[in-house]
Structure formats: C-alpha cells, structure tokens
Specification:
The complex is a heterodimer of chains A (225) and B (400).
Chain A: E1 2-10, E2 16-18, E3 22-24, E4 29-33, H1 40-47, E5 55-60, E6 63-64, H2 70-80, E7 81-84, H3 96-107, H4 113-122, H5 138-150, E8 156-160, H6 168-185, E9 188-193, H7 196-201, E10 206-210, E11 222-224
Parallel strand pairs in A: 4-9, 4-10, 7-8, 8-9
Antiparallel strand pairs in A: 1-2, 1-3, 1-5, 5-6, 10-11
Helix pairs in contact in A: 2-3, 3-5, 4-5, 5-6
Chain B: H1 3-11, H2 15-50, E1 55-59, H3 63-70, E2 81-82, H4 83-90, E3 95-107, E4 110-115, H5 117-122, E5 127-130, E6 138-141, H6 143-149, E7 156-161, E8 169-181, E9 191-195, H7 196-206, H8 214-219, E10 222-223, E11 225-230, H9 235-246, E12 249-252, H10 254-297, H11 299-308, H12 312-351, H13 368-389, H14 394-398
Parallel strand pairs in B: 4-9, 6-8
Antiparallel strand pairs in B: 1-11, 1-12, 2-10, 3-4, 3-7, 3-11, 5-8, 6-9, 7-8
Chain lengths: 225, 400
Amino acid sequence: MISSRALQYRYANGPELRFDDVALPQGGVLLLRGASGSGKSTWLALAAGLRRPSAGQLTVAGQDMAQLPAAACDAWRARTVGLLPQRLHLSDALSVADNLALAYFAAGLPRDAGAIEAALAALGVAQLARRKPWQLSGGQAKRVALARAVLLAPKVLLADEPTASLDDDSAGDALTLLLETARRCGASLVMATHDARVLAALAQAQTLQIRVESRGQPAPVGSVA
Amino acid sequence: MRTLALSFRYLWARPLAAALNLLLLSLGLASMTLLLLISEQLNRAFERDLAGIDLVVGAKGSPMQLILAGVFHIDVPPGNIALAEVDVLQKDPRVAKLIPLSLGDSFRGFRLVGTTADYLHHYRATLAQGDLWRTPMQTVLGAGVALATGLKVGEHFVGAHGLGGGGRAHDDEAFAVSGVLAPCQCVLDRLILTATESVWQVHEQAHAQGEADQPAKQAGREITMALIQYASPLAAVTLPRHINRATGMQAAAPAVEVTRLLRMVGVGTDVLRGFALVLLLTAGLSVFIALWNALRERRADLAMLRMLGASPGKLARLLMCEALWLALLAAALGLAGGHLMTALVGSMLQSERSLPVSGGLTVAAELWIPLLAVLVAMLAALIPAVGAYRVEAGELLDAR
C-alpha cells in the first residue's frame, strides 16, 4: 500500500510543495491530477525514492521512505517499483530483449531469458524481441517499456502521463494495458495525468489533486477528492 | 545481465567509432611491442656474440667498423693485417686465446670466413651433420646458411669475391661442404666457415703469376682480423695501448664500442619510443572523447538505468568497463601486430644477411603492454565515469 501524511518537498532553489494525505490499498489505483509543472512528477519521484521528502511521512509498499538509507534506495527501487516515464527511454543501442534485461542489470540479478520472453508475450510483443527500439511503432514501444517496468513483479507501478499525445483509440488501449498489467502483477498503480479521457474512464479511482498557486512561492496545495 | 556484457554491447552499438579507437590504441601498443622485441633481441645478440671476446685486432680505421665486421659480421672490415704481426701477438703472454678471421668472399650474400676450429669452440657450436674441415676448400655451413641455400654435406659451391654477394665468381676454386652446424642462435648461424688457408688459396690462385713467387706470397700473407681473449684482467690496460702504439694494427675493445653503438642506437630507439608514446597519448585522448560523447549521447540511457535501480557506482563501472574492453582488445591486437611487424623487420634483415630478429619470440617485458593499455584506458575513462556517477534519474521524470 501507499500512504502519505503531511508530505512536503522543497526544491533546491524553488517553491515548497505540500501534498494532501493519501492512503491507497495494495492493488488500488491512484490518479495524480494537476496542470503541467504542478508537481505530479515530483510526487512520483518521491514515491520511487528518486527524491527525498523535506517533511512529512511517505510509506510505499511498507517502506517508510524517510527511513530508507540512500545507499539502499536503488536496490529497493529495483525490486519494488516499476516506472513508466512519459518518454519511454528505451535504449536504441540495444535490442528489445536487451532493454528488458537492463532491469536485471540494475537490480544486480542474472538475466532470465524465459521471464523476458514471458513478459513480452504477456503484452503481445514477443515477436519484437530482437528488434531495436527505433524499429518499433509508438504503441509497440509503450508495450515494451511497460514489459520492462513490470518484469521484476513490482509492488508499485508508477506511470507518468501514459496517454499523453495519443489519439483516443491508442489512449484507451494504453489505459487498458496499464490497468490489466497492474492487476495481473497485483501492483498498486499510480498515474500522473491531466488527460480528461483518463479521468473520465477512471472516475471511481482515488484522485490526488495537485495545484500550484504561485510558482516560486510556497504553498501549492494538494487535495484528495 | 553483467556489467561486462552490457558494456560490450554499448561499445559495439557504435561500431565505426569503436573500431577507430581500437585501431588507434592498437597501433600505439604495436609500436611499443615492436620496440621491445627488437631492442631485446639486439641486446641478446650483442651479449651472445660478444661473450668471451675481449679485444678485436684489425687494420687501422674505425674501431666500431672493426667490431661490426669482426664480431657481428654486419659491416665491411677496414682492411687486412700482416700474418707475421698476428703471430707475434699470439705469442704475447697477455693473450690467452687468439682466433684469426679472414674475410673477402661470400656465397649468395653469406660470408665465407677463414678461421680455425677455435672459432667454433668459442661459441660451443656443434655439428648437426658431417665433419669439420680437414683440408683447405672444405667448409662448414652455419645452420641458417644451410637452410637458406639448401646446400648439403658433399655438395660443392663457388664463392664470389666481396662480402655483399654479386661479386666476381672464383669459378676455378669450388668449395666442398664437409659439415653443417646445429643452430647456435649466434653469429655462426649465418656464416660459412673454412680453414684460413682456403681464403689464401682462392686469392693466391686468382693472382698467381707462377710457382716462383710462392715463397714471397707466403711471406706476405695476411688475415683480416683477430679475436682475442685476455690472459688476465691486467691485459685490458696494457695490450690495446701497446697494439695501437707499437704495431701497424688497431685494437678495439668490443665492450667500449658496443656501449657507444647502443648509445647511438638508443637515440633512435628513444625517438621511436617517444613516437609510440605520442600515439598512445593520442589514443588515450580519442578514447576519452569517445567515452565523453557516449556519456552525452547516453545520458538518458544512464538516467533510465538509475531509474531502474542501478546505483551511481554501477553506472561509473559501466563506462570503465567499456574502456576496459577497448584496452584488452587493443592489447591483444597490439601484441599480435607488434609480433607481425617484428617478423616483417626480421625478414627484411634476413634478406640482407644481417642480425637475426624473430617475430615468434616473446619477452617478459611484453606483460607491460596490457597493463599500459588498461592504464591509458582507465585514465581516459575516469572523467566520463565521474560524469556517469553523477547522472540523476529524476532527469527522466522531468523530461518531456
């Protein structure tokens, strides 16, 4: 599960973000709403252990992030969190299968070719294993990136604007894919989005509204709907 | 996936850049290997051929020429000396051993040397086939000569006037092969040895005027030079001075001349070594630029690895491993290339019947080549690795 209380983050030379409290059960879905630059990605970075809270409490998959030593944070992230950034960042220097194997490299685990094949097959792209990312369509690349994010069966799946710049059909497919994959893995799913189509489709999901009142000033306020 | 395997894939993701860097680094290392192999073999040849020879006595002229002609057989001698003077020298109590050498003819570029059996004993040479000469006009071939000419025991050949080959043939005086030496890895391998009398016979026959002038000829006989071993260390102080002042001959100490020669050759070696170092430095810079560009191009890849959970140290190691691959591949190619170039130099020297240099020989100092390659590559990778260490995963979440 994911929970936060009085969570704050201060940029080095910028504003301080204050987030409303969250309590998301394991396997639940949380939508981060807000305009561009409001701090949605920062919340995701905090949940992934890529940034440290400046105040408050954040617990992800049972781990109090404030108590997680910096040295152990990378290993924890590798085995607990699946990240799907807005730009997919597949390495063009490597094949699709090798891109998935990077998850093992990062976690310090031996490559499991069978698991890679299974992850690609589960997302319907097993036949692309030997191709390079630049040979893939946008939809195929998204599936490959998602396969990499869930390869090590993370407890939390964090997705940043997964439907941005997609047409309606593709956005629907991407959303379905994410929800199905998270359900199959038993992972909690957190999506940062300001896409009205997603908000409409997941109207029943828990939502964290993040607002910036005045950039450069403290007190952008978030609220749980 | 292991760091080594991943770094190898990243390295060859840009094959042209990787190949050019590899080539540049390999060339520098091959040059170093070539220098190591040649200088080691020349030093060994000098030590081997000079062993036990304290003094070379010959005609007045350049002392170094005398040593190069008399000990290494890679130069022409300055002239001849009177046998009568050599006989006097042989009786000098300061002389323990004197080996006469008479030069003047050759066969297919290999020198014919008139001498005594002492010359063979001095280098502990043994016969592989046949026997030592018993009469004039019989010869014993060095192992290299037998291999190059194909001459066998019992066969005959005609020598040519001059040491370089291509001179006028002594058609009426054929030499017989009485024996072939086993390889001794010394100067004897590339010589044809015969009795001193053979050389006199060939040249006296060539200039014969009649039976009447035989006594005069015998009185005026010469040899080309003599190799001398001292009876005591004290002789080193007095004997060369005595010969140079009181006789018509010249005495040259090999130790002094070879030191001078190595100093002169050393300048050239230093220049070549400097050139090889410049090549290595250039290669190091090239590796640095390649890795620095790789860091810039792959910054997103590295950030993505951080996002997936790779530690900063792991990213730094990834860059270092790329450099390590380059170093190890370049070391292997450089060593192979160095041996190949040495073999080419050796074949050129062999065609000139000069010092033997082999590409097949390995020397302990070659172990420094991979270490040098790794050192250059690691130094080149250091700054890019620090850059990789500092890559932030948060960059990706902020990127649009």
